[in-house]
Design a protein that fits this description.
By secondary structure, the chain is α/β, with parallel strands linked by helices. It has 15 helices and 22 strands. It binds flavin-adenine dinucleotide (FAD).
Amino acid sequence: MKTYDAIVIGSGPGGYVCAIRLGQLKQKTLCIEKEEVGGVCLNWGCIPSKALINAAHTYEKAHTSMATMGIKLGSVEHDPNAMQDWKEGIVKRLTGGVRGLLKSNGADLLAGTATLVSPNRVEVKKADGSVETIEATKGIVLATGSTTIEIPSFKFDGKQIIGAKEAVSLREVPKRLLVIGGGVIGLELGMVYQAFGAELVVVEAMPTLLTGVDQDCVKVVERRIQKRGGKVYKNAKAMGYEKQADGSVAVKLDVEGKPETVVTDVVLVAVGMRPNSRGIGLENVGVNIDKRGFVPADEFGRTNVPTIYSIGDLSGPPMLAHKASKEGEIIAEVIAGHKAAKDWACIPGAIFTDPEIATAGLTAEEAQAKGIEVSVGKFPFAALGKAMAMMETDGFVKVVTDKKTKQVLGVHIVGPEASTMISEGALALEMAAFAEDIALTIHPHPTLGEAFMEAAAHAMGAAVHIVNR
Ligand SMILES: Cc1cc2nc3c(=O)[nH]c(=O)nc-3n(C[C@H](O)[C@H](O)[C@H](O)COP(=O)(O)OP(=O)(O)OC[C@H]3O[C@@H](n4cnc5c(N)ncnc54)[C@H](O)[C@@H]3O)c2cc1C
């Protein structure tokens, strides 16, 4: 029987990062993957969707702002086939890079489906049907990720009723697109196809889009969807559908108790992801699952079985690639015997809608619910030279501080490059910064980052380029 120090099941951003770090720490490591190296993130999640989002943003700019800037492009067209080929090229480069990194750090990669058979052994079923049992002396890391949730009344058919996996691979832009679920994935992908001309309808069961996100930020994105001709139903449930004679799909909605029908060409079901905790042998070893199917872990990544670790989407929300990777790095260090634990002030979130939203820490409402009096600073991109030069003035930076101490509690951004700018907000929270620390830090001019400096100053009543109220 082959024996390793550590076995990692799954090679998504949690698993592959963990295996690389284990290799760097001179641990004999095996990473097992049943599909493609890179997991959801590289193959049909973060990277493919962001490639399409960037293409959509470029196309949108070519149509809307470039002529005003004095750049005449003639006719601007899009070619979904070329776009898919380009996107697939990026995926290939990145997954090839991961294979190379695993190898150069001494971690072995095995293709097959792994099942736990004991606290330190896994069975791997390979494509040729053969089965191998492999042992790990120090630990087994479960990094099996998550899968799209399917709703019974909208079974995927791969063409007209689809999930995110199919939605990032469309080689034809639908004329009409109905998205069930106004969460991150639904809005990101819905807005891509809206930018390329699809009539977009979003159906959200909750009273707001992007539940849990600063609603001032969300309103900016909702207005953009509507400005482009999209329709948003809130407090609305998609009940079922009927195929029409002309090939279209009539979706039946329950909107605040009233029936309504929307005819569309493609339905994207984006109601969330569920953890891949079934079929991996947890029951053979007695690993606990919570009621939502996650495999909870302590600050060292350990499940209730001490030799078995859980990271990434499997271990619980937020289901984000950077959370999975950070857990992967830390748990590798724990297994290698280093002093390491999960200990962070915040996990920032980036939503790649148009414009982008990015958040770190508490919203004003969350802070108030904890009994903290807040002072909120806000600076609009409309007052910023760089944003004007980019012709992207919608949105703002909001800094939530403790009213008494002015310590930063949260940062919420909607606008251009919000996803890049939020790293400074996350750093501020990790360093337990005060509004003054940010306001006194010289930010280069002209940049979008100046909005963060001004918002922090505004929380102290000292912004320069807007009136302090
Ligand atoms: C459309 C979309 C867009 C997204 N965009 C973003 C984004 O912009 N930013 C962000 O942070 N997050 C984003 N996410 C979420 C992100 O993709 C996940 O949080 C991340 O991939 C989780 O990483 P993971 O390593 O936990 O699992 P995964 O990436 O799901 O990888 C798990 C791997 O384990 C393998 N596996 C499962 N079971 C077994 C088994 N028994 N044996 C062997 N292998 C197995 C699977 O095949 C898979 O390759 C997006 C997701 C989607 C769907």
